[in-house]
Amino acid sequence: MRRSSFIAGLVALVMARAIAATFAATLVVTKLADTNDATCGSDCSLREALGAASSGDTITFGADARGTATLVLGALVVDKLLTIAGPGQTALTISGGDTQRILEILPAGNLTASGLTFAHGQGEYYAALGVEAAGVVLNSGSFAFIDCTFADNHADGRGPGTGVNDAAVGYSDGLGKTMSFTRCTFRDNTAGGAACLDIDQGTLTITDSEFIDNSASDGPACVLSNSVGPATIVGTRFSGNMARAGGAVFVSGSGGTTIRNSTIVENTSTSGFGAGIYVFGLGTATLSNVTLAQNVAATGSNLYVTGGGAAVLRNTIVANTANNCSGPGITSHGYNLDTGNTCGFAAAGDQNNVAAGLAPLAASGGPTRTMPLYLTSAALDAGNPAAPGSGGDACEAADQRGISRPRFAGCDIGAFESTGPETIGNSGFVTPGDKSNYSWPAQPGVTQYETRRSTTGTFLAPCVGITTTGTSWHDTEIPSPGEVFYYVNRPTLPQLGTWGWTTAGIERTTPCP
């Protein structure tokens, strides 16, 4: 009898979902103006579409809904399962006009939003916290943002909110809920605390995203993980952010924060502690194939652990400051690299007082910028010898760009797996008004380069080229009127390098056939 009841219930659930899918509708936003007449027909705003939609519906945007839609009637409310499919981050911006919050997701809400920019949101007073919070999204439900940009949002006292200002992009207290950001960019957001995200409850996942030039006067610049649920950050770059503590990530929640295949570089702490990652209290952080470098603070510049917090590192680079690490709660699981001797690394494969050999941040393929490894790097082939991706303390199966590990004798320490030496800044062009001089930065350890010139940026046209021990080519040919010369180069000695990457993030394997 119980089995029959269970089967009957399961069939009913499947039928209900099938019926919901069958009757799901697509609503089309036709204008930028923020109006609300409770209907969504040929004249439909985003607010009207949200009000008219049923659970499971999708909202899209017509040709006239391009540009900037500035909200004037308060935050948009999501209280059901919905998809908002935008036309692209450069095609449509949803703006709070620097006066109001953009979105509120209620406990019953479950939003998937893609292809949009959210800008100029202003945090408003949130009674549950007693603070001004959440310039873009105040969340008690679940959400997934995909291919979105969050720019120039604020929780810094400019709007009507009062109290301690927090979370210019998003604040979440959705217990048991899920939140994710995939291929998203956060830039130039400002707040008192948590310039981007403050997660008090729920499960957070950030994948293949970038946090750039965000700032907080009295808290972390990017991600504040206070949650009893887990947080996972994968394939993500944090750079140029400034905060009082935790310029990139501040971990204090008991749910645990895992960071994999990510680059955290050149962030600043104004208090002098933990410019890269700051772990405190009940917080635990696990780092695997992470590159932490050149973050600016007096103490624990790259990693600061205090107040009972704990951090576990494996296959991770901590580099290029006078005080890379600080705190008693740092544990090595092996094959880490400290350019100094402040992290206490003493497990198998650990290296101290060695050169990380990190090149500057560059577009080296994949969705985010990374720091390639020079030939002088002690990180090359020095990761855990277990099969990458096999679990435990092994290297990640692929690097931050998605390049499979290992490429040579062993996997590399850090977020970047070398495919051979690469020349940084490896493409350029010359127009008729210029001298045909093409140059590139010298690669440490490289003794010979090969250069090619083409009349197409895809390097599919016939090419000419040279081999040189120098770092420049004076090309005697001059482009014809209307013609453009494109150049690409690679190291050839002592090790053959790559031809670099296309603008689509694809490695050039056979330029100029």
Q: Count of helical segments?
A: 2
- CATH topology heading of the largest domain: Pectate Lyase C-like
The first-level CATH class of the largest domain is given as Mainly Beta
Largest sheet: 20 strands, parallel
Share of residues in strands: 35-45%
Low-pLDDT residue intervals, each spanning 5 or more residues: 1-20, 159-164, 422-435
Helix residue percentage:
under 10%
What is the radius of gyration computed over CA atoms, rounded to a whole number of angstroms?
Answer: 25 Å
Structural domain count: 2
Average predicted local confidence, pLDDT = 86
Q: What CATH architecture label of the largest domain applies?
A: 3 Solenoid
Describe it.
The chain is mainly beta. The chain has two domains: 24-312 and 323-332, 3 Solenoid (Pectate Lyase C-like); 427-493. Helix content is 6%, strand content 36%. The chain has two helices and 46 strands. The chain has a 20-stranded parallel sheet that branches. Strand 1, helix 2 and strand 2 form a beta-alpha-beta unit. The relative contact order is 0.06.
